[in-house]
Amino acid sequence: MLKDLLTRLVAGLVLLFFATSLSLLAQSVPCPPGAALLSSSDPAYPDAMELSRRLEHHDFTVRCIFPTKFGSAFMVEQNGVLVSTIEGEACFSTNFGGIDVIFVSEGQNFADFKITEHREGGGYLYRFSGTPRVHGGDKFKLGTAGRNYFLRRDNLLFIVGNNQLLGRLEEALPPPTP
Question: 38 lies in which domain range?
């Protein structure tokens, strides 16, 4: 009887360990080699460093910061030249998971940026429109296997892969009071 109880206890602890490890593994974002990290010459660098300080003030540990793949979505043709409609973008690898952030210049915001989510097959399809403009205008679509969550704060747009991380960001970065 005691042996059965110990066996169940050990089995439960092993199951808990693996469940916790898989959960943490699923949220982690590996840091790229040093050359791929966000450069101090990147236009988003000052904002990324300020955001890193704000996050760390709220118990986030920022392991590294590197460019995301979202920047090209905000490249539009203007008078025959490709220009970016954003200041920059960065991915933060933190103890709570990966956080993609799109930055627009101070004084601008994402109030007129529309995000439409649609389930398609086993994944999600997002359509972006409004300001800042995206490549392809209202026809631009982004497909993902998992659901994304979006949070707008001042001149920042956060994109995360789970609602727990979204909740942590909402607590750490509350909206400004009117």
Answer: 31-172
Half-sphere exposure of 145 (CA within 13 A, CB side): 0
The predicted model scores a pTM of 0.80
Q: Which of 100, 150, 160 is nearest to 130 (CA)?
A: 150
Overall number of domains in the chain: 1
Beta bridge partners of 130: 113
Residues in the chain: 178
- CB-based contacts of 118, cutoff 8 Å, min separation 6: 124, 125, 126, 127
Torsional sign, CA 158, 98, 116, 44: positive
Residue 130 lies in a domain: yes
CA distance 64 to 119: 32
62 with 92: CB under 8 angstroms? yes
- Domain presence at residue 18: no
Contact 68, 89 (CB under 8 A): yes
Predicted confidence (pLDDT) per residue in 65-101, tens digit: 999 878 888 999 889 999 999 999 999 999 999 999 9
2 lies in some domain:
no
Query: Where is average pLDDT lowest: 23-27, 46-50, 70-74, 101-105?
Result: 23-27
